[in-house]
Amino acid sequence: MRILEPLARLCGLLAGALIAFMVVLTCGSIIGRETVGKTVTGDFELVGLATGAAVGLFMPLCQLHRGNIVVDFFTARAPKRFNAVLDRIGALLLALVCALLAWRAGLGGLSSWTSTSTTMLLGVPEWLAYAPMVPGFGVTALIGLHQAVFGFDRPSQHGETA
After folding, report:
1. pLDDT for position 2
2. Residue 92 burial by Cβ neighbours in a 10 Å radius (0-12, 13-18, 19+)
């Protein structure tokens, strides 16, 4: 986890920078439309590309801090040991799904790159949205696998202890 935690934090910082970029871009476009009648051309394209990248990049930090949604309606009164086993199984399933997503995002990005697919208005290469998803989902898969094998080293965001 010594390597995974800094990677998760770096991914989170990059995702936060993308969110800040989207806020500035959206505000600039709205202010421009309302004051001088001009918007930022292709703002929705850039926001769409950045959103996909940000989602993939936020995943490692979310999993590291156990911030995913937990529906414990049926297990709220179950023994802690049983819930701990379910948490590990959930982490393993998340690792498998994120590994699949990293693989498919990688293939999608390569396909987009080889076909030189671009956005309609600005002509931004679409593979730029896929590229940050691959390491984001990859790191999330590794964190989930580590948590499934070695357990959790921090309490969840839902009040339990580690």
Report:
1. 87
2. middle
pTM of the model: 0.86
Q: 3-class SS at 152?
A: coil
Positive or negative: CA dihedral 8, 59, 26, 109? positive
What is the 3-class SS of 56-86, one letter each residue?
HHHHHHHHHCCCCCCCCCCCCCCCHHHHHHH
> Bridge partners of 125?
118
Question: Which long-range CB contacts under 8 A does 105-108 form with residues at least 24 apart?
Answer: 105/56, 105/130, 105/133, 105/134, 105/137, 106/130, 106/134
Report pLDDT digits (tens) over 115-138: 999 999 999 999 999 999 999 999
Mean pLDDT, rounded, of the chain? 91
The predicted-structure confidence for 21-52, as pLDDT tens digits, reads as follows: 999 999 999 999 999 999 999 999 999 999 99
What does the alpha-carbon distance between residue 130 and residue 128 come to, in Å, rounded to a whole number? 6
Residue 105: both structure tokens together? 């995002």
DSSP alpha helices (H): ranges in the chain? 4-35, 43-64, 80-114, 127-150
Query: For residues 53-67, b (16+ Cβ closer than 10 Å) or e, as one string?
Result: bbbbbbbbbbbbebe
